[in-house]
Amino acid sequence: MATGELNPNHYPAQRAATVVQHYLNTYYGSPYKVFGVKGVHSGNAEDVADSGRKYQLNISLQDFISKSTENCSAEVLFLRGEKQQQPSPPQVQASCYELSAINTKVQEEAFYQKYKTNQSLMSAHLPDSYGHIEPGMEPFWHLGTVASSFIMLNQSTEDTLYNMAQVANVTQLETENNQLKFDYHVLLHEMVSQAIIHWKLLFSWSPSEGVKVLQQEQLPHCHDCEKPPNSN
After folding, report:
1. Please, which contacts does 151-156 make with residues 24 or more away whose CB atoms are closer than 8 Å?
2. What is the layout of strands, in order, in the sheet containing 179-190?
3. What is the pTM of this model?
4. DSSP character for 172?
C-alpha cells in the first residue's frame, strides 16, 4: 500500500472514504437520512507504528434524501496486528456536523406512529425485479442501508469496498418495548472481489434510539445467485 499523498480517484482513497460513509450511516442514519460519498478531494496515508495505516481525507458527503452536501475532514485508521480470523473494525473520526444535525424528526415520528400499531405486518423485497422501489417503501430501503452499514463498517479493511446491493427480504416483527423490529436479508456487494455476500439482520428502530442491530448472521455463499439489480 502506498504512503504519502493519494490520488483521490484511486481505490485506496475511495475505500477509506466509503468507510467514513458507513460510519456516518451507522451512527446518524435513519429512514429519512442516508449518507453517501459525493467526492474525494484529497487524501494521504501513513503507517502508524505497531497500529496500522492511517488515512487523512478531505471529502464531500451527501444526504441522498435532502441532497444536502458538506465538505468533511476525516481520519480512518485500519488496525494492524497479529493474524486473526476476524480483523478489527477501522477506527473513524469525522467532522460532518451539518449532515449529522439534519432534522428529520417530523418524518421519523410519522413513520414510527404508522408502523408501531400496524396490524398487517409488512413484508417485501427491494428493489423489485425491475430495479424499482415504490416511494412508500423507500424508508425500508434506507433502514436496510443503515443497518447494513453496521456490518460493512465492521467488515471493512484496506482491501474491501462494500455497498448494499439489495434487500432480498424485509419482514416487520411485532413491536417490543416501543421499538419497531425488523428481520432483513440483505445482499452486500464487495466490489473488489465482485462477491455477493448474504447477511441476515435482526434490528430495532425508533426515533429516539435509532437503529440497534440485535443479531447478525452471514449466510452461506450462494454459487448460483445472479448479481441483483442496482438501485441508488
Report:
1. 151/186, 151/188, 151/199, 151/201, 151/213, 151/216, 152/22, 152/188, 153/19, 153/22, 153/23, 153/26, 153/89, 153/90, 153/92, 154/89, 155/89, 156/15, 156/18, 156/19, 156/22, 156/89, 156/90
2. 123-126, 162-176, 179-190, 195-206, 210-218
3. 0.90
4. E
**DSSP letter string, 66-110:** T--EEEEEEEEEEE--S--SSPPPPEEEEE-HHHHT---HHHHHH
pLDDT tens readout for residues 121-138: 788 888 877 788 999 999
Q: For residue range 12-29, what is the model confidence (pLDDT) as tens digits?
A: 999 999 999 999 999 999
CB 54 within 8 A of CB 48: yes
3-state secondary structure of 51: coil
Q: Residues of the chain with pLDDT > 70: what percent?
A: 91
Is 175 within 8 Å of 205 (Cβ atoms)?
A: no
Distance CA 104, CA 102 (A): 6
Pick left, alpha or beta for residue 200 (phi over 0 → left; psi -120 to 50 → alpha; otherwise beta): beta
Cis peptide before 8 (omega within 30 of 0): no
Instruction: Compute φ and ψ for 54, nearest 5 degrees.
Output: -110, 130
